[in-house]
User: Fold these one by one.
Assistant:
Number 1:
Amino acid sequence: MPEPLLQVAAIDAYYDDFQALFGVSLRVGAGEVAAVIGANGAGKSTVLKTIAGMMAPRRGDILFDGESIGAMPAFEVLRRGIALVPEGRRLFPSLTVEENLLIGGQSRRPGPWTLERVYQLFPVLAERRHLPAPALSGGQQQMCAIARALMSNPRLLLCDEISLGLAPIVVRDIYARLPTIVAEGLSLIVVEQDIAQALKASAQVYCLQEGRIALEGKAAELTRESISAAYFGV
Amino acid sequence: MQWLNGILQGVLIGGLYAMFAAGLSLIFGVMRLVNIAHGDLIVLAAYVALLVTQALGIDPLTSLLLVVPIMAIIGYALQRGLLNHTLGDDLLPPLLVTFGLSIIIQNGLLEWFTADSRKLQAGAIEIQAFQALHGVWIGVLPLIQFVVAVAVIAGLQALFYYTALGRAFRATSDDQAVAQLMGLDTRHVFAMAMALSLAVVAIAGVFLAVRANFDPSIGPARLIFGFEAVIIGGLGNMWGTLVGGIILGVSQAIGAQIDPGWQLLAGHIVFLVILGFRPRGLFPKVSG
């Protein structure tokens, strides 16, 4: 088996005294799409935050391209090529759409993504480039958050609940563009509550339950029964 | 005519107050840090200028070429070495640490330079004036000071809205955690903000030291003027800060016309009245 791009090795993560992750391991190869699914509070977002460097694992390690990044702060992790689209989008409200994108591109990593390319991917952002970010609709804000992350030309993109609070048609619209993004050769981890969407978009699926990996496997091979068992723990 | 002269002087000194305030406002805007040592840093800049002018035999305005970078470097080091470690969810630690810093600077200056009053000598320019209207005289130095203040405010405004650094300041001010996610090292961003703040402090300190006597104890009063100008103008609005400084300066000038003993009190009263009717200042910008 070739060396994976990202290897999360048995990490434990805590919020103060509360343990959120118990020995979580996962691996994502170059150009692969993985999904992390699970109920509310299962620890999905925590996995992404820990990979992105927003919090450090207390035990275990995270290897990115063979290098340990577990203890690195978020800005160092980004410079190595991991970008997170945070839950709830979290655009900078006092910046315009274009300024948000430029902040994403501030790391100056070389790669295919430029203002021009992300505007091609999401033309509606080009039309509204000079509006303040909060003036966008929810779906447009989500596009802007994805575009902002792409501007750093990541090798691994982490998407946290990109369907949250959006109309199904908008979610389909956004997911329809993921293949274009992956076609540029980057790897992707999506965290979703919308299981159908996650299964459709990804090759490898990890199901979290109360901070532990309850099930993992190829999306095509998992049965609905095994997923609901892992999801609800029944 | 005497009144008009007084008010005009008030406007011109308002520029100085705006410079006291601009650095304070910048720091609070970017990192929610209330810098109690701000006034003492202004006085420190005045002493740095004193050393530079004495050592090199140059005039105070030329000394800015050295004093501004020196203070900016002090600002960067101060933020990286000390203040960054005090920042967090709680506003109290940075408040206490800068309060301690204020006392350390005052006593350090007292130890080094004694309590004697000093002044920077700018030469003939200090007493030059021209007649703007019949009976209305404008000093050249106060006018230069005012023009510099407007340029400083305009420069800060342009930097905030049209440069990558300004964008980083605004993004960090909005959401520190996400700014880090986007590759911004917030420790560095904060240090750059403090460097910029102390660069403005350097300019303010030199003009302060040219127009009047200074000694190690006058910092806290400058801090109060700065605070008042920021709050009158409204937090987070640089042009508002300039207006706030001018209102404060004019109030003091009018007070002084009524009775010399009323100068400072009149400024404080106008500040309190504005705070009473417009608690968020005249031109509020920052919401929430």
Note: Chain A has nine helices and ten strands.
Number 2:
Amino acid sequence: MKVDIQLTDAGISFGGVHALRGVNLSIAEGEQICIIGPSGSGKSTLLGLMNGRLLTETGSVEVLGQDLLQLTARQMRELRCGLVWVPQDLGLVPNLRVLQNVLCGKAGRLGFLGLLRSLLLTRMSEAEEVRSLLERLGIPEKLYERTDTLSGGQQQRVAIARALFQDPVAILADEPVASVDPGRARSLLELLTGVARDEGITLVMSLHHVELAREFFPRLVGLQAGRVVFDQSADETTDRQLRELYATGEK
Amino acid sequence: MKELSRWRNWLGSRRLTLLAALVLFVVGLLVLGARLDDLKPSKGGLELAGKFLGAAFQPALGYEAADLPSTTPPFWEKVGRSLVLTLRYAVVAMSLALVGGMVFGILGSRAWWPVLNQHSPSGWVLLWVLRTVRIVVRGTATLARSVHELLWALLFLTAVGTSPLAAVLAIALPYGGTMAKVFSELLDEQDASAAGVLRSGGARSSAAFFIGVGVRTFPDLITYALYRLECAVRSSAILGFMGIPTLGYHIATAYEDGHLREIWTYLYVLLAAVIVIDQWGSLVRSRLSRPRPAREAGRAEDSVAELHRKRPRSLVLRASVVTALMAVALGWMTEKQWQSSLPAERRQANFERFLHEVVPHPVRENGNDWREFGPWLKERIWPRGMVALHRTFHIGTIAILVAGCGALMAVPFAARSLAGRDALGVPGGRERVSGLRAGAGRMLRVTALVMRSIPEYILAFLLLQVFGPTVWPLVLALALHNGGILIRLGSEVVDNRPSRAGQVLVAQGGSRRSSFLGSLLPESFNRFLLLIFYRWETCIREATVLGMLGVLSLGSLIDEANTRLFYDDMILYVLMGALLVFAGDVVSDLLRLRIKRGAIGSGGRHSF
């Protein structure tokens, strides 16, 4: 099976404190994997290593067969065109229309002037494409609304639409359901995992909720104090392992 | 260590802050030698005040003078022309200031910097280049802002003579500096998460910055620019006191001719113009921050074209864009001659003479021997310059303290959420006085609007005629104008942040006043402080020029040097004023940064 993301003995420290240490992780093409662990265990940092927002200080990180440390700025941008990052606060521009926010997904491929053209003089074909994406996510009628007038759940859908519009190889989602009620969290996860499965997109997500992680993801990675404590299928994961994962984090 | 950290947190302590304010107030009064009985107007002043206020109810609708030469234009034509000129200079100056402010604002911020690898040599060099650019740009902007627009006008007029371009540049320079500072702060404080996502999706830093940060900041920038336009109209009006025929010029000449009713006509026209722009600004701001829903909601089965037709649109915003563009175009094009009518050689000669005379006279007379510079400088700075500087500082400080206290007392009555029947949205039951209270609140808000709409220079000019040449007119003028601004900003602080604790107090049966004192004031104390520090800086800036009306301070020294044609002295005092403002700016920035980092968490920004 083709490997998308390969971390070998990766580690990084901030101000002398190890955020991650000796992480070995291999994620295959189209795989869906969830990173769990208490706050401060390094989940966001791990995701940051995978798209080069952070660079590993030890070992290596290879994404789509390329070593991130060896890339020039241009190669890095080209690589990133295939990667989507969905941060917890979604990172939408609140005073742009939904259409324009989704169009921003192609920012890397279009270049600066191309993006400006696309935002200001949107072609009919682009608008149609965005509309059909939104339709798939259940909010086609919001195409021309200003993004900050949408509800929180609708804005999440816009962020997903933007992610899909980028036509990515992998989606890296950082706690996308942290500030959402359980019902909405479930429907969002269904949407994301379903879309990723249909399109064959690799999905790496960090989550607080252990139950949701077990329900939606076949493979779980447990992080504790910057180290991987387990990396196994969800079925193998026992309640005891989970209790221990969170118990020591509280100390 | 604990002691130290306690001292470092002194600003968080309300008592110490209030104590410091009180001490500053008393010291200021002593330094200025201000006595309360100076506040009693002279007999002649009282009479004048009576007549002047009486004239307020019957502004002139035609010339007051009976025998006029037949060449005089009709009265309203004169008024209209001076209004148009005032607006035109303001609009043209703001268009320059906005463009300059955007360029300098971006260069002066950190937000546009690409992510650099500090460990590689090229990244390290680039980082230092960027840092140097930032410091140079910020220094230039602060310098442009430190000299008041009236002083810029004075410098330009003496250097190259009266011309529309000089008037416009005099406003555009300091305003551009202010726009640059505010814009770079807006950019640096902007949430950059969208830019991060774009960059992580392969976008270049430039694209990520413009879309992710720039677009987000744009509404704030526009709102602020509209507020500055309102200020620019005021500045343009007071340029009249320098002999440029805007509204202020006609106010000054009408006063000299004793035509009190004509003064009111011009004042009302200026007020109307400022208030229209102020209200336009609030309308634009509300549309930008709370867009209205589309008239016809789109449906899921609509096609793209149909959704596009039904998209939410704001008539106000579209009309505003068209109006603004047309005003700028008209402002630039209707002036036939931006340069002065003097031939180019004369301008050149004037400028060279000015450059020559700016050199301190002992140096000049001894064949550019700069050894004479030291004694000359010392003689001027000590004691005259320092006394004037000291007084200028205290005039500004006392004024802001009076304005701040007044505003704090007025806010519980002026804030909409407290003045209505249902305080803070908690139903208050039926009561007879609710109409009265709402009426009083509205009156207070209108008074504040009028107070902040009259330029402090004109206010001080008029008050001086009533109270005679003491510091009080300057302090009062500054306090009134800034009090008006602080009442509005303070009310916004109370109205825009729904206070749980305040609601609890009201729901427990507390009165409005007790909920203001018990929760709203302590909760937003630091926010008020931020506003007061911000206005303090502008007060000191204004205080340097108000002295030009003839009260001992830096302004009076500048004015004196100008009338005696001692340009070397004039420049020196202008620079001293700039230094004071520069220092005030830095101190006020540091304090505000400290307060922001300290007690205030997240929260909305203020548009001014």
Note: Chain A is about 40% helix and 25% strand.
Number 3:
Amino acid sequence: MNPLTLDFMQRALLAALLVGLAAPAVGVFLVQRRLALMGDGIGHIALTGVALGFLLGTAPVLTAVVVAIVGAVVVELVRQQGRTSGDVALALMFYGGIAGGVLLIGLSDEGSGATLLSYLFGSLTSVSPTDVAVISALSGALLLTVLVLGRELFAVCHDEEYATVAGLPVRFLNLLLAVMAAVTVTVAMRVVGLLLVSALMVVPVATAQQLVRGFRATVLLSLALGVVAAVSGVLGSYYADTAPGAMIVVVALLGFVLASVGSLLVRRLRPVGATR
Amino acid sequence: MTVVEVRDGAVAYDGRVALSGVQLVVGAGEIVAVLGANGSGKSTLVRTVLGLVPLAEGSVQLFDTPLPRFRDWPRIGYVPQRVGAATGVPATVREVVASGRLPRMRRLRSASGADRTAVDQALAVVDLTDRAGDSVSTLSGGQQQRVLIARALTCDPDLLVLDEPTSGVDAASQAALAVALGRLAGVTIVLVAHELGAMRSLVTRAVTLADGRVLHDGPPPELDHLHLHDPEHAHPHHDERQSAGPRQVSPWGLS
């Protein structure tokens, strides 16, 4: 059967397209700041938000957004204070988020092991029309923010001290990036799943930088790679009947391996002295 | 006009005194080298002037405005230590240099012709026009340093502050750096250095720090450190933090 004629697949594919654009667009700044695992930590903490939604009987997406944003802002503030190193703060989020999520889902009536799995690794059938609307609005906002404030975010992530002396609102931009990462995680969780969302933020960026030289080129290529991985992963998981998150990440990683081998071969084959 | 003024400056990190009782006045057009051994407080001093390190006591003025009220950041070009030149995602020379123009650009506007011209000119001053499209990480240490200088120049600053621009840079690149800085007519320059090296011909005044205090303030020394011809220091790529430990001898011990 042609999956494109199925309502739930149309929704899943549209969501995948948007997530494939938004995740690398935000992820590139996290990678630039060497905070590639930030999305992972936020994903873990968002699980507590999802479980809280089940427990309170509200939409899990809403509670997940709120909890993820609070978590991301707290980690950023801790990092700015310099009290705890960034990786310890992330570790606390990892453990607290997962433990809180599993604990709260156990306490709620609706949540089951299967629901938990669909949030952890994504699920094709779970993308409701409301989800598509929420995902469209939020990923649109994320892409617009990157478009408008991309130069400022680049400057801060590239060299925070320089940006401070240049008079940029460094604290605000750092907090904004944390909030954007949290929103990205919640936007992507229905399709990719909370445990794998970070991969879609990081892997297309890592692949792109094997192939191109500049920041702008890396951003554009990683958006394209993100869309290819997300859409083909969703289609592949339909035929293979697996969790879409796993398929998306496997496709993205495959792209990374191909790009690495390809760029290695190009460098080997290029005559000595041709590189400047 | 006074460009930089530090009065009774004192700084402490976690209770350890890094600067104390520092007086420094830099006038327009001066080219001042802040010299000293590692741990002498020379980097802390310029970072304090820029507001990156909080003062424990005393006051700082930039262009006759107290630092807490100073907002005219485009007048200042800052060249930090080179650690930040290459980051997690590759960026081209032009992209990094163009990010320096942000303070002069209108927020939310795309780059104007004047912005692009400023970037072109800054690249030309440091002789990196032909490398504009290359990834910064493929450049040598000295070239990366020049990228950061070009970034600071895009704002057309009145004060240029350079933190250890010559550390880890070979002699030929140091000379190229000095040439680039020599082209900046009328710009006040404060540069931190372990030793003057190729900057000697440029510098109009030297301030030497030791243990967080100003040891000497006057014309630049005729000769550099005793170990100027020390083979260990003939290799500028050598990590100075390792080699400089026991050498905290003032260049003024000779005279």
Note: The mean pLDDT of chain A is 88.
